[in-house]
Amino acid sequence: MSNDWKPATKAVHSGTRRSQYGEVSEAIFLTQGFVYETAEHAEARFISSGDDEFIYARYGNPTVAMFEERIAALEGAEDAFATASGMAAVSGALTSMLKTGDHVVSARALFGSCLYVLEEILTRYGVEVTFVDGANLDEWEAAIRPDTRAVFFESMSNPTLQLVDIEAVSALAHRNGATVVVDNVFSTPVYSKAIAQGADVVIYSATKHIDGQGRALGGVILGTREFIRKTVEPYMKHTGGSMSPFTAWIMLKGIETMGLRVRAQTASAAQIAQTLEGHPALSKVIYPGLESHPHHEVVMRQIGAGGTMLALELAGGKDAAFRFLNALKVGLISNNLGDAKSILTHPATTTHQRLSEEQRAELGISPGLVRVSIGLEDTADLIADFHQALDAAK
Ligand SMILES: *Cc1c(COP(=O)(O)O)cnc(C)c1O
Q1: From the CB of 111, is ligand 1 less than 6 Å away?
Q2: pLDDT under 50: residue ranges of the chain
Q3: Based on the domain organization, do 271 and 307 belong to the same domain?
Q4: What is the 3-state secondary structure (H, E, C) of 257-268?
Q5: Secondary-structure breakdown of the chain: helix, strand, coil percentages, each rounded to the nearest 5
Q6: pLDDT at 63
């Protein structure tokens, strides 16, 4: 049965619902609503709807259900809820489960919008949030209390690629009955074993490697059937952050090629990191797959690969970083990641501009730091491009 399929088979077949036409490629059910044969049928469906019965696209839709089932099968989760963006998934997962007076412990190194949700929004509703250094287990242990309701972290942080040990933090959280919510974007669904390692809830921005071709925003919350249907679904369907059927179709087709793309991007990233390490214009090459990375052992144990992202620190600071970026001929200056096109970002002046200089320094976001998302171009072309741009940055 489909539960025994290997990931590559699940990625192209799981969740498929064929209409009476027997289409090969998944159909896009671009409809907001569904017709009931009789008033009695409508009444019955509002009381309880079966697997193939839908009410309204904000509540669910056949194309969206296909995406949810496929990504849940791949992740090894009981169920999934698809959302309009990665941030709708992060805010939906947390807000649906928390209430005034709850305590949350979170890693400090977060994507800017995740930090905003935890620091500015949840606290406004009386949720207490304690931030810790995600790589420091003593800090997690000291911060997690008997009344801690949830812990939150990015398993591989943006943009400095710090690893949080899912197994170790989950063990500390579960001792206190806290729910472990992992933003797993940088680890990707291809390498993730997060649920087996102890995560209760796994979140992806589907905008990144799942689409992988820069077309659409989307997100997904994965967890137990109980959590997804009893906690997340009522919140999402009434607050409106659901995924559109058209987006779900893009994401379904994205999943089919995601394994091939992410493995090729990872192999390329590893080769580029090795080649650039020790370059005189760079004070640091940060790539978890390198033995020099402080969390190399954790990343190999946790996902068995270094991932598709690296970070370069230009020795000449912001001016050198800008000269490097401006000299690129293949790599693009933008802020998506996981894309087929290689994308470079200067976090200090863009994604993390909102933070104070002290906060950036604490997170290792120096003026010379450049985040690199490796795409599907020929590795040799990327290496040549980075070398010529580093020469121009001198
Ligand atoms: C991009 C990203 C998000 C937000 O996803 P969107 O689809 O842009 O809303 C959340 N967490 C991480 C780690 C991300 O990289």
Answers
A1: yes
A2: none
A3: yes
A4: HHHHHHHHHHHH
A5: 45, 15, 40
A6: 98
Nearest CA to ligand 1 atom 10: 86
Cβ atoms of 375 and 339 within 8 Å: the answer is yes
Q: How high is the pLDDT of residue 49?
A: 85
Return the number of other C-beta atoms located less than 10 Å from residue 329's C-beta: 9
Please state the pTM of the whole predicted model.
Answer: 0.97
| Assigned domain for 1 exists | no
367: domain CATH number is 3.90.1150.10
| Residue to mutate (ligand 1; options 114, 115, 205, 221; most atoms within 8 A of CB) | 205
Q: Which pLDDT score, from 0 to 100, does residue 355 have?
A: 87
Q: How far is the CA of 110 from the centre of ligand 1 (A)?
A: 10
d(CA 280, CA 315): 8
Q: Are residues 62 and 45 part of one domain?
A: yes
Question: How far, in Å, is the centroid of ligand 1 from the Cα of 75?
Answer: 18
Structural domain for 235, as ranges: 7-254
Closest CA to 336 of 303, 308, 359: 308
Number of structural domains found in the chain: 2
